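Why do we care about 3D structure at all? Because function follows from shape, and shape follows, mostly, from sequence. That is the central idea of this module. The next example makes it concrete: a single protein chain, its amino acid sequence, and then its structure expressed as tokens.
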Amino acid sequence: MSDPLSSLEPRSVWGHFSALAAIPRPSGHEERAAEYVDRVAAEHGFEVSRDGAGNRVVRVPATAGREGAPPIVLQGHLDMVCEKNKSVSHDFMRDAIRTRIDGEWVAADGTTLGADNGIGVAAALAAATDPGVAHGPLELLFTIDEETGLTGAKELDASLIGGRTLLNLDSEEDGVIYVGCAGGADTHLEFAPDRAGARAGTKPYRLDVGGLRGGHSGLNIHENRGNAVRLAARILAAAIEDGLAVDLERVAGGDKHNAIPREAEAVFHLDPADEKRLRGVLARQEEGFRTELGGIDDGLEIRLGPATDASGRVLASPDRDTLVRALLALPHGVLAMSRDIPGLVETSSNLAAIREHDGSIVVLTSSRSSVMSSLAAVLGQITAVGRLAGADVEVEVGYPGWKPDLDSAVLQVVRTVYGEVWGRPAEVTAIHAGLECGLIGEKIPGIDMVSFGPQIEGAHSPDERVSVPAVARFWDALGRVLDRLSKG
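And the structure:
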């Protein structure tokens, strides 16, 4: 089968990206992607080091005449978020991503594309291997398991890094330079409800909420996209408030901590004589949802049908009510905007997932803020809701933010280059997402960092796509920056 990306420019970048797209690399299973890095390094005679976490550092000699320049670190992560539409058959542990060209965009067929951060990794490899790029000594730092907890950056052996200037290639806006990011932490709430058999004469039903866009819980949270878990909870609450005897068996939805839930389901038992009333509740709720999400998530789908896999074991009514109320009370969405950078979200939280585990019900939330006291406050609110609901609450060790330094020397170089490539002043801002720069900066005090990348839309969802013209501009800028930094 021919490679649909083989005709795209710059070929050195797209060639490496195409190779990475063919390699399964879910978070925690990046071994084959790391082996690809090792092969590329071996083919060019580059030295490779790895630490105990599995991070790779590839040392690339300078091009002729640039040997005296200080080393520059190019950094990206090897893993990708693995999300697919329910209708798509795809095994992320075995199957290659099926890429396609859609006008000026590269996308995938019903799955995440992995441009986050495959394009950054590909660009770093291309910079090291393309003879047209002039550079000083390079250190290519490829981390593992970024998407599920920044594990590689947390466990990085900083002694492997000699450079004190770092270009993070994991941003997603064309023509924008990032100089700061939010910190964050996840919270797990575990409920242990009492269960009993479903009432005699009831019938099992399944409610499905889907068709939503989902997206990155940091980059897209300000767009007020629909959260399938929250919408399912609102429907259940409305049915209970209407007096319907809904015997809830399970609620499940969402998957990744950093993805807004696109789909959710609820299985419950109900007297068939009440089905008409339930459908009336659904119709009223759906009308309201469509008004709220108009122009944002017009693909919303709500379906009610028989449940074919019901166990017949349902939550006791008090525990049902407690769970549904907790899902309504937990914070979700933008909680504060920055007073320093217009348009930047300062604090947010994502009601990320709910699932059953060993008889318990586990709810996952993911919170972010560029102000650590505000992050602590949100985590405290989530903990309070969970404890009021009788849940066991565990707040995971989080990750630090990255404080902007507008006087950064590397920023001045990148800002100048961006003005040349885009023909306008560069936008310099911070991002409401967790970049590895925060952790790397903590491990290597004083390292000078910026982050930039091409336009990627729909990251962490099957709508993910990357702009071909933006990749060309990103590559042009990276080459110019490396050239300038190596001239002294």
